Amino acid sequence: MVVQLSAARGSSKAAGGASVKPRPQPRSRLNRGSSPRRPAAMAVYRCSLCRRTFFTGRRHLYSTAHRRRLQEALGRLEEEVAAARAALDGAAVRRYDPAEHERRVWCLCCGRGVRRDGRSGALALPHAGLLQHLAGAEHRRETVRFWRENRADAALRERFVVPAEEYERFAAALRKAVGAHEEREEENIRQMAARIREAERRQRDTVRAALEPPAETERCVGPPGCSSAVGSARDTSGCAELPGPSVMQAGPDLSWMESGQALTFIGHQETEGKGNVHTGAKPPWLTDEEEEDGSKQQIGPSYEEFLKQMEKQKLKKLPAERVGANFDHTSQTGDSWLPSFGRVWNHGRRWQSRHQFRAESGGKKKKR
């Protein structure tokens, strides 16, 4: 620069003394700024999957830690989705159990819990709640957003979405299964009602046969083979057995014996006291207690015995080593149960009452 300026000055002087200004030279790129260049500040990024804040911006989405957490979370959700997809082929219903069918599945794309099973009255519909959520339009939108924000593999997105057509077929099959189950339950209820009505009818017939008065027609009182010894008229009316217990007869009925027949009458065997069903007595289940016994018997302990037992239960709760635990309250004690040297005193010392007692009783010991 100095050489050029000097040469220029010399040439100018040679030209006649005219002054020429030097041409400015361009600055180098390295010397343009007086201060060194500062790097641009990175944006703060909050990752909802890792639950941490990173200062490297969206560069974190391509890190190894983020990819590992994303793969683990998608693997857990894929297991639940695969189990729900397996239930699409066969719709089933079960009895509702809160401990089993109140479980929720965390949807990673929507960020909320979803009930896995559905419910219809007292019936549980396995995987119906999760399938309904996976087939919804909101879940599809949230899945697209989640894949875009976390840079997930686009080929895996369709695994976490259920087509609406498949869910409609599943819902139709589920409605048929619920209807079939309700028909089976109604059929079981009708069969149980029929069995109950039949049992009540038999019970009414038994009670009616036991309470109705005996028929006026003559009945056979002889042995079971009496129809062979008597005439044909006797066969139709006398040997017919009526339902229910028989009625005790007051005496032997000899009207059935006809003249000209060589039959020997043995007689009725009457037992003293109570009869039984073979002699025509009333069955015990139709006999009142007042009829059997004139005085009404008391069942169970009396009220006084109950109070004594309650007192014993209270005493069992008290400590066994207490004073007077073994004292017999039923024993009779006289007036001389106090010790000979003791009495109740209101003033003075204890030994003074002892001497006073001995002086009054005249049994004071003589000094040796």
From TrEMBL:
Signal peptide (from-to): none
User: From which domain of life does this come?
Assistant: Eukaryota
Show the InterPro entries listed in the entry: CCDC84-like (IPR028015)
Which key words are in the record? Coiled coil
Could you tell me which Pfam families the record lists for this protein? CCDC84
Compositional bias, Basic and acidic residues, is annotated for: 357-368
What segments bear the compositional bias annotation Low complexity? 1-19
Q: Where is this region: Disordered?
A: 1-37, 272-298, 349-368
- Residues folding into a coiled coil are 67-94
The protein's name: Coiled-coil domain containing 84
**Lineage per the UniProt record:** Eukaryota, Metazoa, Chordata, Craniata, Vertebrata
